[in-house]
Each structure stands twice: as structure tokens, then as C-alpha cells.
Amino acid sequence: MDNGEQPPGAVIRIERRDDPVNAVTEDDAARRAGAYPNLRVGAPLFGHAVDLGDGRWQVHALVDDAPQQARDTLASRLREQLADTADPDLAAELTATGQVLDWEKVDEVTVAGRRHRIVRADTFARFGPDGPEPPRPTDPDPREADRYESFLGGDDVIVDPDAPTGVAEAVLKVELLPAHYPRATVPADVYAQSVAAVRSHPNGVLLPTRYAVAEYVAGAWQPSSRAVATAQEARESIMFDFRWLIPRTGNPSEDEAAAYRQAADDLEASRADEVSVLGRRFRITRIETLLRFSSDGPEGPRPSDPDPDPPPEAHFAQLRAQGLLPDPDTPQEEHP
């Protein structure tokens, strides 16, 4: 990861919090920053946000790997709102907006006077001499991962880039705001837009930490799962692979399949952050997420972000033109 000077216009407000829990959390953060001093930029995440006014935005479901997935999620939420409203004017506006999203790649729409924007967040992982940073002792880690409510798992959160933060969060923002992709590791347009975003969106909000699985392969740690809301969800993805996926797709011997099942059982009992089996090594990795802001609001998708899928109705039209999908207005033959 490349770091420059703090971007012009960046403002970080600090609010000292003296409660015991916060003191332990900030001490934990300082220790880990020393043990894992290197930050690497990862793949972006996409979602959508609603402008609440006065610089505040409500962020929804920042979980998608591509902008079109986030557009589809926004369209789905608007359809839910349409089903619930009795206001004919709002219903007409929601219907028209939904049709636009079904046919066009648009990253901002206005409904009932509020802007809805497709947003992009940068992800980062800390690395030290022994590899990526695992979960911290102070991180929430409920056993019932599927019941843990995190906006990154589908709930909502209200963010304000001008709101004060604690010391540890402020220090992390100082590290992340000027960060961009290294020139040598990405295409030229990705690098240029990453550098430009530092200046065009100089402020930011740190979102709840995420967790992913990394595997040590050929002397380097490689991501092997999507980021999820809790460390336990990441463990469960490993257990699923060991118990179900690998035995069905990896063609292991009976002894190898038994070794994977035993490793899954051991991980379930210990809730460890690292597991090794048959020469393979996996680690739960901590992922930081930064939503960049300008004076106009959160950053949207960049032109260089992969966005291969067309909107749904445009895709259906392509399939019909290719003869791969029947025309909805053409009567279909009934078969006995």
C-alpha cells in the first residue's frame, strides 16, 4: 500500500473517551498496530446510501462485490417500499425509479426528495512478520454468528464524516485516508483513480470491522473467502468447506476426508483463529473498511471498478434477442 501526505481538506475530530472498555480497546489497537504495521489495500465493497441531510448518510448493505449487485439491491428495497406505500404520488415515483434501475446503470436516483447513491468502500488488512492480523481479543465474537446484527450483514447504519471519533479510530483514519493502490500491483487506470480519490474524497468514515479467511499458499497469504460480519462466520465458512465442499469437489481419499472433518470439529470446539490440515494453513483475517467522503457525500463506483453484469431487464432483452429467453408477450404452448 502506498501512503502519501494527508489529503487537503481532510478533517479528523477526536473525542477522548475515558470509559474502561474504550481504554482496553484502544490499548489493543495500539499493540496490534505495532505487531502488524503494514496495511494492504484489498478489493472494494459496494452498497447504497441515502442522504439524510446535514452531512449524514444512512448506509445499507455494504456487502456486494460489484456495483450492479448494489444497484439490484437498491431496486429491491425500493420495490419493498412501493409495496408498503398507500401514497399514489410516491408509488408513481418509486415505479419510475425502479424501471430506470432495471434498465440502466445509474449510480444515483432521487426518491421523495432524498438522494439514493451507490457507494464504494475501500478494504484494508494489516500484515506483520507472521502474516495478516487475526481478530483482536476486544473484537465482538458471538458464537451464534447468524444472529449477530451488523449493518454489513444487511442492517443499516447512519454515518457522519464530521462526527468525532476515539483516539484509536482517529489514528487509523490518519493511516487510511492517504492510502491508495501501489503503482506496481494494479493497472494504470486503477492506480490513477485510486490516487485521485484521495484528493477528491479527502474525508472518510470507518465502518465496522469485517473478517475473511486467508490461506498460506506458495509462501504468501491469499484471500480464500468473502468478508463477513464476524470472525465466527468466517470460521463457519472454513468448517463448511472442510465438511461438505472439499469431500464433494476435492476428490480426497477417505483418510484425507476424515482429516478435514476432524479439523472442522476441532475448530468448532476451540473457536481458534488459525487451523492447519494436511499441510494447508488457514487464518481468520481482520478487514478494515473505509467509506471515503467529499463535500457532496460518499464515494461512488470508479470507472475502473469491474462491473460486468448488465441491469436485469437489459440482460433479459439481450437473452431474448439471442433466442435464449421467450418473449413475455408471446403465448407459450401448453403441454399435457
Task: Provide an overview of this structure.
With about 325 residues, the protein is α+β, with helices and mostly antiparallel strands. The protein has one domain (about 1-20, about 30-300). It has eight helices and 14 strands. It has helices at about 20-35, 65-85, 90-105, 165-175, 190-200, 230-250, 255-270, 310-320, and strands at about 1-5, 40, 45-55, 55-65, 110, 115-130, 130, 155-160, 180, 205-215, 220-225, 275, 280-295, 295-300. The strands form two sheets. Strands 2, 3, 4, 5, 6, 7, 8, 10, 11, 12, 13 and 14 form a twelve-stranded antiparallel sheet that branches. A hairpin with a 2-residue loop joins strand 12 (about 275) and strand 13 (about 280-295). Helix 6 packs antiparallel against helix 7. The longest helix has 19 residues, at about 230-250. The N and C termini lie far apart (about 65 Å). Residues about 145-155 have low confidence and may be disordered. InterPro entries: DUF5954. This is LigA protein. It comes from Micromonospora narathiwatensis. Pfam families: DUF5954.
The rough form would be described as globular
Count of spatially separate domains: 1
Proportion of strand residues? 25-35%
Q: How many β strands by DSSP?
A: 14
Q: Supply the helix-strand structural class.
A: alpha+beta
Mean pLDDT: 90
Distance between the termini: 63 Å
Give the helices and strands as they follow along the chain.
EHEEEHHEEEEHEHEEHHEEEH
Share in helix: 25-40%
Largest sheet: 12 strands, antiparallel
Unreliable runs: 147-154
Specify Rg, calculated over alpha carbons.
Answer: 23 Å
Oligomer: single chain
Total DSSP helices = 8
